[in-house]
Design brief:
Elements (H helix, E strand, L loop, with lengths): L2 E5 L3 H12 L3 E5 L3 H10 L15 E4 L2 H5 L4 E4 L6 H8 L8 E4 L12 H8 L7 E5 L4 H5 L4 E6 L3 H11 L4 E6 L2 H23 L4 H21 L10 H12 L4 H10 L4 H8 L4 H16 L4 H11 L4 H9 L10
Parallel strand pairs: 1-2, 1-4, 2-3, 4-5, 5-6, 7-8
Antiparallel strand pairs: 6-7
Helix pairs in contact: 4-5, 8-9, 8-10, 8-11, 8-13, 8-14, 9-10, 11-12, 13-14, 14-15
Length: 334
């Protein structure tokens, strides 16, 4: 049995804690809210994110980071992307240098366009081979219901990936391994932006043909950017690419799709964020993704369109017309 510290007692962090505990591990969650952490410890339920679900024996929580990470073999990051650097700087002296660090975060850092594993490398004095990511079509509420799901665990060192894989494999959660950290991480970041686009189209009632086109062309954008960054294009046809994209773009449980739907119905950004209540990483990630794309001279029209609606005040109807009137071209370049 391993000691696993999950830093973040939100929706996905709590669901991941359940997975690890169901596999027999001692799991402790860090949260900033004393009421939530004490309720998890005393009642084994997260009243803010998963009321009505009881966590397994062996799961507890604390607001004290030193208590949470002490003796942990695996450190799991489950906090919003824009908080990662500052939190890690605060926690650096507490986190064991020999621990495996696993990111669950699907976003890029604003201002640097860094992926979360790159932020970890920047801040923590840990072995680069032991820093990785888990990604895939993993809607937290379905995980809490123990419905079947699969994901990808990516580390530069396949041995470490297989170790983490064995740590979290359960009867309802099936992890695969990959060494393409860049591709797995990028797929999780871009799909949130595409899910915003699909949500906007849903709010505008544009129909299933439009949703399918947006998902497909969104995947094409992801592959182009990923290849430009050195990722394996085959990664994007797997769980961390197409799999996650489909789940996030089609499920009403997806916070990015839900926020996009509100925008498509005419809500302002602040209103949509207030109504969805949880962090929609695609809102912030659209800008650093475009910066990466511009630096590589990669065209990402859907990401640009979402950015225009969210950050430039563009009307969804005008943006959609502009997308449909772009110059025609071959689907596949040879």
């Amino acid at each position: 049995m391993s000691r696993i510290a999950v830093l973040g007692a939100g929706s996905w962090g709590t669901a991941f804690a359940q997975i690890a505990a169901d596999n027999g591990h001692d799991v402790v969650l860090w949260g900033r809210d004393e009421y939530i952490t004490s309720t998890i410890t005393n009642s084994r339920t997260n009243p803010a994110f998963h009321p009505g679900f009881t966590l397994p024996e062996g799961v507890w929580a604390s607001t004290n980071i030193g208590t949470v990470v002490r003796g942990a073999q695996v450190i799991v990051l489950a906090i919003p992307a824009q908080a990662v650097r500052q939190r890690l700087l605060e926690w650096r002296s507490e986190i064991p240098a020999d621990a495996v660090v696993l990111s669950l975060i699907k976003g890029l850092e604003a201002g640097t366009s860094l992926r979360m594993t790159e932020v970890v490398h920047d801040v923590l004095p840990c072995d680069p081979a032991a820093v990785g990511v888990l990604s895939g079509p993993n809607l937290a509420r379905e995980i809490m219901q123990r419905l079947p799901a699969a994901a990808v665990v990516a580390f530069p060192d396949r041995t470490v990936a297989e170790l983490v894989q064995a740590t979290i494999a359960t009867g309802y959660f099936r992890p695969y391994t990959n060494t393409d950290v860049t591709g797995v991480e990028l797929g999780g970041a871009v799909k949130n932006v595409i899910a915003l686009a699909v949500g906007i189209a849903e709010g505008m009632e544009l129909g299933a043909n439009a949703y399918a086109a947006l998902m497909t062309r969104g995947l094409a954008e992801t592959v182009k950017l990923g290849v430009g960054l050195g990722a394996n294009p085959l990664t994007f046809s797997g769980l961390a690419g197409m799999g996650d994209l489909v789940a996030t773009c089609t499920s009403p449980l997806s916070r990015n799709r839900s926020l996009g739907e509100l925008l498509g119905r005419g809500a302002g950004l602040a209103e949509a964020i207030a109504e969805t209540k949880q962090t929609a990483e695609g809102v912030t990630s659209s800008h650093p993704l475009l910066e990466l794309a511009n630096g590589l001279d990669v065209e990402m029209p859907l990401t640009s369109a979402v950015h225009a609606v969210i950050h430039e005040g563009a009307e969804p109807q005008g943006v959609m017309r502009a997308l449909m009137s772009r110059d025609t071209k071959p689907e596949v370049s040879h």
